[in-house]
């Protein structure tokens, strides 16, 4: 049965068509917002996947290049590996929806969002987020929805609900908020140092818009929603818990987990596991789920210790940060390096500087962004958590953590005019026990300063956790959560920023939402912590950016030429610019505005290349002193090359003070001589003289 539903959202019409396509999916929504069209589907397997202790949810955001009238690049001419934007969008959809599925549900679920048309006024990401929520809510898949998502931009201090792509790219705020009918369940933000109060205001403006969307979704569900299907529960039997508690009393489990050493705690749990394996050796059914049962017992123990006893596993106070340390220049010969350590979390960040020709090219649905100058990448090897696993490249988590640290630092980077470099920062996780992305932000900031990148302000990040009880008022916010508190807690609220405001937020939860007091307390706590980290730790390792780039980094000088002269510098088929590069060994980038960046490791060669570009782009003037090489000799004079593609002639009568019969009597091919420009002769040609050069002119030649 086909049904169409519409509502006005931020001045544009949102249309949801149900029953028109994909009838065999558990749920499908054909979404239109303006001319942006996204097909969202939700499907689930009939039976649970055996042998797993997690909910197997997959979320996809498929960018079809036909949506923007493009044919994909490469030899295959078809879409391939998901772009970074697609991965990040999938994560933003996954994070708020995952907690709303039953905790004991083990059926495979896939949420697919296919972008089929893009209207620059209506971003496809927000349409996909809403489509995934609607398709799941109307399906027969167990889901405690509905939920809704809104994006907020800000230009000149004014909020913009669901901004256009241009407003999103150019504004001071990129905020995405997901909500249920009562609480906020996900926050993702990038911001240009937005004050905390302003950010909270923006979050709850999104929450208000989400309530209108939830009312709209409820209307759709009332008309076309399917009854939720029954499923096989994978919950641990209560009688099994009772037996485990007899064999391992609660006080013994508390003692096992109450340590600040991750390895010691894991060893304690392993000993408990071995005892229980022996006890359940005859009960294959319980033995198969013993690992999950111990996890649940450990989780309940930790949560009770924190919430009721205000005791953290490592003995810290609720608002206490783990021991911190920071250093720079630990890796020789790289352009910049720094290490930041917080407890058992340790990140080494390395910065590489390169000419602008090395920027990352982007082929995606956003036609406003075709390249990325600052690239932050994050690696999480298995040895960082004491495990062994073959590395097969970055997964979605690594891409997400890298993007978060990248977003945190973009607001403080110098402009291209101020610092004409492509910048790559790579965060290597040496050790992990909670919130490596925030340690990555701190290490990256210091590494950039060590490399001589003139960032405007220092940036730091920290994460807060949460343990909740039976009521909304029964909760405890934890500053700087370690791995155990992240695994067993209800929230991972990461905030980065400067002294003046927030630059990024990423909030994940495992419960059905946060009240406003929790959000406000978490933002306040993270501000206090990041100021302490910057003032007491980072600034003691390096207080400000170095005045010059590292000795091993390329040196870049930039000059501006008349854009109409760009063709003269490039030359026919690139002949002129390639000749400059071959002679000096530099790299040259020219943009359409006439900005010329010259990059090399030898400062003298850079200056030589700059002189050549200036000569090529400057008209000869009477009295100008130049140095040139003899490239051709004729009976009437000699031709000199002052720079590739830029030549002039000295008449035989202007070569020597005395009369000469042949040019070869004084000059030979390859000679380098100094000349003075005489201006135009009677024929209107620019002429030069060797004999009229002032005696002290050598120092100012080609200047």
UniProtKB/TrEMBL annotation:
Recorded superkingdom: Bacteria
Reactions catalysed, semicolon-separated, are: RNA(n+1) + phosphate = RNA(n) + a ribonucleoside 5'-diphosphate
Q: Name the UniProt key words of this record, in alphabetical order.
A: Cytoplasm, Magnesium, Metal-binding, Nucleotidyltransferase, RNA-binding, Transferase
Against InterPro entries, the record matches this protein to: ExoRNase_PH_dom1 (IPR001247), ExoRNase_PH_dom2 (IPR015847), ExoRNase_PH_dom2_sf (IPR036345), KH_dom (IPR004087), KH_dom_type_1 (IPR004088), KH_dom_type_1_sf (IPR036612), NA-bd_OB-fold (IPR012340), PNPase (IPR012162)
Query: In this protein, which residues make up the domain named S1 motif?
Result: 623-691
Q: Which CDD domains match?
A: KH-I_PNPase, RNase_PH_PNPase_1, RNase_PH_PNPase_2, S1_PNPase
Q: What enzyme category does the UniProt record give?
A: transferase
Recorded GO MF terms: polyribonucleotide nucleotidyltransferase activity
Q: What is its EC number?
A: 2.7.7.8
Any coiled-coil ranges, and where?
none
Positions of Mg(2+) binding: 486, 492
Q: Where in the cell is it found?
A: Cytoplasm
- List the Pfam families hit by this protein, alphabetically: KH_1, PNPase, RNase_PH, RNase_PH_C, S1
Q: Which cofactor does it need?
A: Mg(2+)
The record ties this protein, via PANTHER family, to: POLYRIBONUCLEOTIDE NUCLEOTIDYLTRANSFERASE, POLYRIBONUCLEOTIDE NUCLEOTIDYLTRANSFERASE 1, MITOCHONDRIAL
Q: Cite the NCBIfam families for this sequence.
A: polynuc_phos, PRK11824.1
What family is this? Belongs to the polyribonucleotide nucleotidyltransferase family.
Its function, per the record, reads:
Involved in mRNA degradation. Catalyzes the phosphorolysis of single-stranded polyribonucleotides processively in the 3'- to 5'-direction.
Supply the name of the protein. Answer: Polyribonucleotide nucleotidyltransferase
């Amino acid at each position: 049965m086909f049904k169409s539903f519409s509502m006005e959202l931020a001045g544009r019409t949102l249309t949801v068509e149900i029953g028109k396509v994909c009838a065999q999916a558990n749920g499908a929504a054909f979404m239109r917002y303006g001319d942006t069209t996204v097909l969202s589907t939700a499907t689930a397997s009939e039976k649970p996947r055996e042998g797993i202790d997690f909910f197997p949810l997959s979320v996809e955001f498929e960018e079809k290049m036909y949506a923007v009238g493009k044919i994909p690049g490469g030899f295959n001419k078809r879409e391939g590996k998901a772009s970074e934007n697609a991965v990040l969008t999938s994560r933003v959809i996954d994070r708020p929806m995952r907690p709303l599925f039953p905790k004991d549900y083990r059926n495979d679920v896939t949420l697919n969002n296919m972008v089929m048309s893009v209207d620059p006024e209506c971003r496809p990401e927000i349409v996909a987020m809403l489509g995934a929520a609607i398709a799941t809510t109307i399906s027969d898949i167990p889901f405690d929805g509905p939920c809704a998502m809104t994006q907020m931009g800000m230009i000149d201090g004014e909020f913009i609900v669901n901004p256009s792509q241009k407003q999103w790219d150019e504004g001071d705020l990129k905020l995405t908020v997901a909500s249920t009918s009562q609480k906020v369940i996900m926050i993702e933000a990038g911001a240009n140092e937005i004050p905390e109060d302003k950010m909270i205001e923006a979050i709850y403006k999104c929450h208000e818009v989400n309530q209108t969307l939830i009312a709209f979704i409820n209307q759709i569900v009332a008309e076309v929603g399917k009854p939720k299907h029954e499923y096989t529960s994978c919950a641990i039997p209560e009688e099994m818990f009772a037996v485990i508690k007899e064999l391992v009393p609660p006080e013994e489990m508390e003692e096992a987990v109450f340590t600040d050493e991750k390895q010691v705690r894991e060893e304690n749990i392993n000993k408990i596991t071995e005892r229980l394996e022996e006890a359940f050796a005859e009960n294959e059914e319980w033995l198969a789920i013993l690992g999950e049962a111990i996890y649940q017992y450990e989780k309940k123990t930790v949560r009770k210790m924190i919430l009721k006893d205000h005791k953290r596993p490592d003995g810290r106070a609720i608002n206490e940060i783990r021991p911190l340390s920071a250093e720079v220049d630990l890796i020789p010969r790289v352009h910049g390096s720094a290490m930041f350590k917080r407890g058992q979390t340790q990140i080494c960040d390395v910065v590489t500087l390169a000419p602008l020709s090395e920027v990352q090219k982007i082929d995606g649905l956003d036609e406003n962004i075709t390249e990325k100058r600052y690239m932050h990448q994050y690696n999480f090897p298995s040895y960082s958590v004491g495990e062994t696993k073959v590395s097969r490249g970055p997964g979605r988590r690594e891409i997400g953590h890298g993007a978060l640290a990248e977003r945190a630092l973009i607001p403080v980077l110098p402009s291209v005019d101020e610092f004409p470099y492509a910048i790559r920062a790579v965060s290597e996780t040496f050790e992990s026990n909670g919130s490596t992305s925030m340690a990555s932000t701190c290490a990256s900031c210091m590494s950039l300063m060590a490399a001589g990148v003139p960032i405007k302000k220092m940036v730091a990040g920290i994460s807060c956790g949460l343990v909740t009880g039976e009521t909304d008022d029964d909760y405890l916010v934890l500053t700087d959560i370690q791995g155990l508190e992240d695994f067993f807690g209800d929230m991972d609220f990461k905030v980065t920023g400067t002294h003046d405001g927030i630059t990024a937020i990423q909030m994940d939860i495992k419960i059905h939402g946060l009240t406003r007091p929790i959000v406000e307390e978490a933002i306040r706590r993270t501000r206090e912590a990041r100021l302490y980290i910057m003032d007491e730790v980072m600034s003691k390792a390096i207080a400000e950016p170095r005045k010059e780039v590292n000795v091993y980094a390329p040196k870049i000088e930039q000059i501006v030429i008349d854009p109409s002269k760009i063709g003269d510098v490039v030359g026919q088929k690139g002949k002129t610019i390639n000749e400059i590069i071959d002679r000096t060994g530099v790299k040259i980038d020219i943009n359409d505005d006439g900005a010329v960046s010259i990059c090399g490791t030898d400062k003298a060669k850079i200056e030589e290349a700059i002189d050549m570009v200036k000569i090529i782009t400057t008209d000869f003037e009477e009295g100008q002193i130049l140095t040139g090489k003899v490239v051709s000799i004729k009976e009437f004079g000699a031709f000199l090359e002052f720079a590739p593609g830029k030549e002039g002639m000295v008449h035989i009568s202007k070569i020597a003070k005395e009369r000469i019969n042949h040019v070869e009597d004084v000059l030979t091919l390859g000679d380098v001589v100094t000349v003075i420009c005489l201006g135009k002769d009677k024929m209107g040609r620019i002429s030069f003289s060797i004999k009229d050069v002032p005696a002290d002119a050598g120092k100012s030649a080609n200047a």
